[in-house]
Amino acid sequence: MKNRLQGKKILIVDDEPDVLDTLGELLDICEITKAENYQDAVNLLESESFDIAILDIMGVDGYGLLDIAAKKDIIAVMLTAHALSVKNTVKSFKKGAASYIPKEEIANIQLYLNDVLEAKELGKHFWWRWLERFADIYDKKFGPDWQKDDKEIWQKFQYWI
């Protein structure tokens, strides 16, 4: 598999230093910049250029940072543990996040980021592989009917494959 992450400049924003360290190690083929709080992240987003921003939701106002990243045309990926819900997944999708990744899947971060970069390269929707990657996890965590409240959104995923 081609690793599209080689040399990419990535901003990681999380208020947990161990998460920042883990992601730094997992993404060691990238140029990593870390921020532990909202204001530091805003300053970095406003003053530097990034290929991808990995944003925690809780503790650093990830949705506020997502808005800034979207305005700067930076691919933003939401990574969360405490805010893991179908509602926040849909919110992230609607606000323009390129993906929504449970922190329990952090070990596979390269795979998911490569999916996003491959989608960009092929002109596909960023979320084209999301359902394939995460449907089983959501089935186990939220039950088999987790898509029922936002059927129109989830039906779109079938067209992006």
Task: Describe the secondary-structure layout.
Layout (H helix, E strand, L loop, with lengths): L8 E5 L3 H10 L4 E5 L2 H10 L4 E4 L6 H10 L3 E6 L5 H10 L3 E4 L6 H14 L7 H13 L8 H10 L1
Parallel strand pairs: 1-2, 1-3, 3-4, 4-5
Helix pairs in contact: 2-3
Would you mind describing this structure in some detail?
The protein has a 5-stranded parallel sheet with strand order 2-1-3-4-5, with helices on both faces. 48% of the residues lie in helices and 15% in strands. The protein contains 7 helices and 5 strands. The protein is globular, with a radius of gyration of 15 Å. The protein has a single domain (9-160), classed as Response regulator (Rossmann fold), CATH 3.40.50. The protein has helices at residues 17-26, 38-47, 62-71, 86-95, 109-122, 130-142, 151-160; strands spanning 9-13, 31-35, 52-55, 75-80, 99-102. The chain has 161 residues and is of the alpha/beta class.
Count of separate DSSP helical elements:
7
What value does the average pLDDT take?
92
Q: Care to count the β-strands? A: 5
CATH topology descriptor:
Rossmann fold
Summary tags:
5 strands, 161 residues, alpha/beta, Rossmann fold, 7 helices, 5-stranded parallel sheet
Short description:
This protein has 161 residues and is of the alpha/beta class. The chain contains 7 helices and 5 strands.
